[in-house]
Amino acid sequence: MAYPFKHERETRVLTEAFGDPAARTIEGWKKYGGYEALRQALGMSPNDVIEVVKASGLRGRGGAGFPTGVKWSFMPKDDSRQPHYLLINADESEPGAFKDRELLRWTPHQVIEGALIGAHAIRAKHVYIYMRGEFFEPAQIVGRAIEEAYEAGIAGADMMGSGIGIDITLHIGAGAYICGEETGLMNSLEGRRGQPRIKPPFPAVMGAFSRPTTINNVETVSAVPHILRRGPEWYKSMGTEKSPGTKLFNVSGHVVRRGNYELPLGFPLKDLIYDVCGGIRDGRELKAVIPGGSSVPILAAKECDIALDYESVAAAGSMLGTASVIVMDDRTDIIRAVRRMVEFYSHESCGQCTPCREGTEWTAKIMRRIEAGEGTVEDLDTLLDVGRNMTGTTICVLSDSCAAPVASSIAKFRDEYMARMRREAPIDALTV
Amino acid sequence: MANEQTDSVTCRINGIEVTVPKGTRIIEAAEQAGIGIAHYCYHPGLSAPAMCRMCLVEVEGAPKLQPACVTTVAEGNNILTESERALESRKGTLEFYLINHPLDCPVCDKSGECRLQDFVHAEGPKHGRLLDAKVIFGQDDFGGNILYDGDRCIMCTRCVRFMREVAKDDLLGVVQRGHRSVIDTFFEQGLDDSPFHTNIIDICPVGALLDKDFLHKARVWDLDHTPSICPNCSQGCNIRIDTRDNIVQRLRPRANPDVNSYWMCDYGRHQYEWMNASDRIEAPLVRAGDRLVAQNWQPTILALLEQLKQRAGSVRVVGSPMQSNEDNGLLARLGSVLGATTPVYRSTRAADEVVLPGFPKLARRRELAANGRGLEALGFDRVGDDRGQGGVTATDVLIVLGDELADLPADFGRDASLFVYLGHRLQPAARNAHFVLPVSTFAEQEGTFTNFEGRVQRFWPALQPPPLARPAWQVLGVLLAGLDDGPAPADAANAFLRVGSHFDTFAGLTYEMIGTRGALLNEPVAIGAGGGD
Q1: Is residue B126 scored above 50 in pLDDT?
Q2: CB-CB: which of B52, B65, B178 is closest to A361?
């Protein structure tokens, strides 16, 4: 089967053009109905665009799931006083997440179209696409698409003859995870250290360049053209009542077919793993799933009988996050997996808040020791205690994200930790 | 919006009700209520990044603890700084600070005035739980006066923000990130050329930034602290003189929003060794032929009074801008009682001012002495050049206070019929005096200086003078009394009142009015480049 994999249970809206290199050009994209929604939006008042998106119930796909229309409505309605900015967060760096990369690679014009509509809705005259530094290929593709859009009169002054002018700039980051946090992203965009800012003031009041700013995820704005073209009712017909629409599930780990699958929200997790992804590799048993990227609590196999929407996953004690599903089979060394995640957070902590700067590395040190079989029962208490002191005490949630997998793995796989301390289990983890 | 200034909010902090202007931050409101909130990164003279996470307090109704240094008080807030959650959070944060801290207090200069020590002692964990190796950074020389100890650093970034926001000379930065973060200069570009950089040592809450001048010199708990005024230029920065065993160990700024905010310049800070000079005049000396003979005060004063009464010819008095208003005021009074010509003084002047960009009210002024403006207000004329040399010629009767006459020839004043020298050290020209009277320096007595803008500020005695040295105002007061010009003042406060009774510019001022922030002279304020011209 050629990449990207397709499955008949998918509802392909955002991913319709995946696999078609022609869709990377304007002409190719127009065959999929491209830029019709932008023309339509430019003929509407900004408030009407916001109302349509509000009515669709679209929620932010960057992890928090905040309603997009509501977020847009926070922006000041008076466009004469100061410039507004729309930032597209393409700094996809959550371990396990690879959905935005595919959207940028296959459908750059979909992202640009959604961004321009969003900019019109919030009365911004400038869009920045902040892209992760390691995204070499997507950066080339999106850069070319922006040039094309300017040449075709779609971006820039007097877009499509509407008299409205919106500029779009591609900004390449330098590869720090924390620059995917919205205020860290703004600092990085301005040329400062990539450190999250204190809120308040919130970005809609004072964001990039001290101006009202909205930050949207790539997947969020990619859904907007479809909502405008086919109506909010159509969008609401998919997914669940509180989590409408489709979502890209980027599945990695020990499944047969890893990849991006666009499914309506509320899709059962078990079906995703065993049907869409073809089950666990080598016919092994499921051990655990991280349903929303490495920052969210781990679900043990017995907790996996859930639907994948924001509410159901939260009810199960985890978060849907970016819907980056990491599947682990029964050979997985949970301790090693968690240690690896913690090391990532320790490496990526920006270092301004003390609990995160010190706590992430301390946690990593203890995890390394436990993994090597040198841990003690007291270490588990220390880990949980350090995690508590790291949670809710910092400017952003990086330190919370570091503490979450530690606490959830200790809660759910305590036996495994204890066995390692007694040196019962072999210390030759197979694969993570 | 018109009455935004008067808009106020009322809140309760630990049950104490306070009313503060709108926009006041919790940490400031708490201070008003008499409640201290532990903090590291916050400093009232700098921006607040809210990153040390020490000042997290509970605001009833808020789901998370709030940083007191940036959260503004809202009407009806019930703020708890000592609640269980706030205490737990502080204890946890302090443990994070300690895991990589070397705990080398016994060899750390900051020990005793270290905020980490203080807060850990008060609320921190009793035992460490780190079983693994600490992160080691080592030491670095930042150039200028600064040594950096990366292991002790708690990354509050006060120093980085001082250089950026106040010195406006962005020479320090945080390099690396996460637990590898460390403060550093830019490659080989150190702090050498930045004239205010030593302030970062004062604001460093721990012993990460060390003063090369103070390195391993004294334990801070052995120091005595005396509020004073920096004598090294006419800015009049409020300072604290830290002494041990009657030796000045260091000068540190003392906050005064009207004069120097929280800062002082490096030049002023490091000009203190002269206060420790040991080659002092130790007893009154009276000429006997070619020799100066030590004598007790009483016969000296009586003999001097006799000579003053029998004086002949013109009288000249020379004052000093390193002496207090009281000293120079009574000197000028003595001059007028004796019918002297206009009193004069000499002072050194630098070519330029050195302004602190983030607080331009503060500069190292051109006049490199504390009290030039005070002397002008007392009717003195400045003579000589910018090096503080020349301009003084001998006359029949010459009375010199403080000015060492170091530039004058060895036969200066030999022909005078009466040459009285009140000073600290004996240079060749002063050896020609008929009476050499040991007086105390400003650091050894109570008194006032008048700064460049006419602000009269008090200082207190930080050192013991040599046993027989006396404040000049006391000597001059006794002489005036001997000349039937009122009673001798009993103390510095009375001497100051006496000056006020003779000079309109000082009339009505008292020590109580001056207080700790100073009071302006009774004259139109004229802010000049180098002090009173």
Answers
A1: yes
A2: B178
Which site among A199, A368, A389 would you substitute to test the B interface, given the most B Cβ atoms closer than 10 Å to its Cβ?
Answer: A389
B67 touching A, CB under 8 A? Answer: yes
In a domain, residue A432? The reply is no
Q: Look at chain A and report how many structural domains it folds into.
A: 3
C-alpha A51/C-alpha A166 separation (Å) is 21
Mention the CATH class of domain B285-520.
alpha beta
Domain B95-223, CATH among 3.30.300.20, 3.30.70.20, 3.40.50.300, 3.30.70.1560: 3.30.70.20
Backbone angles phi, psi at B105, to 5 degrees: -50, -40
pLDDT in tens, A368-413: 999 999 999 999 999 999 999 999 999 999 999 999 999 999 999 9
- Sign of the torsion angle spanned by Cα atoms B387, B393, B394, B397: negative
Shared domain for A27 and A66, answered yes or no, is yes
Both tokens assigned to B141: 């020389």
Burial class (CB in 10 A: 0-12, 13-18, 19+), A192: exposed
B95: chain A residues, CB-CB within 8 Å: 389
- The number of residues making up chain A comes to 432
Q: What are B291-303's pLDDT values in tens digits?
A: 999 999 999 999 9
**Which chain B residues are Cβ-neighbours of A339 within 8 angstroms?**
none
pTM to 2 decimal places:
0.93
The string of pLDDT tens digits covering residues A329-339 is 999 999 999 99
Same domain, A284 and A382: no
Q: B8-82 has which fold?
A: Ubiquitin-like (UB roll) (3.10.20)
CB contacts < 8 A (A, B): 95
